[in-house]
Amino acid sequence: MSRRDPHTFLDTLGLAGDGDDIDLLREIEASFGVAFDDEAGDWRTVGDLYWALVRRVGTDEAGLCATSMAFYALRGALEQQGRTDPRAGPTSRLATLTRLPPKRLYASLTRELGLKLPAPPSGWAGTLGLCLCLAAAPGAVVALFQPALWPWLAAGVAAGVALLRLDPGAYGELTLGDLARETAARNNARFVAKGADTRHEAVWRALRDLLAADGHQNVGLETRLIA
């Protein structure tokens, strides 16, 4: 397995152990098609998690690249919808390949391919809506001493929720290759069933990409699970 400079490794995933660790494990189980038992309670590092996956799905047999398989599946679906050039490559920006807003495109690809896609990045409406909802907590504290603020607080939360629901998403600089990598990471078992690589290095890449898709970059075997 390739290793990076240990000085660049993330020290911890920052999980609080208040349920966020369970959510992460469930996502990994869903992607790899496995089930973890009570041994998970003894894990301390990403390496412990990785070796548990290797014991369940790792082999010595070479296979296809799951990310490449996801790329061709996504591009094929876009071609059938008439939404992209068949010459589109991994570096092609999604914003240049379709006129559909992100949420509609992702929903369409999910239906057609039967794969779990990541949530599209938020647009300005979603970002504003999230800020309004997050502001509700300190706003509620202030409203305890200023009851007249409650209607304004309620209106702000309602507006925030509405903006989150109506947000079409944003492509930004996201490429077809980026989407393929995240899609492969979230559907590992599906691609393995079609011949994807399950050697130890491939299992590590799939786990690392899945953690990266959840915001945990530069993860190493020594990275702690709990903060």
From TrEMBL:
Taxonomic superkingdom: Bacteria
Protein's name in the database: Uncharacterized protein
Protein source organism: Caulobacter sp. 602-2
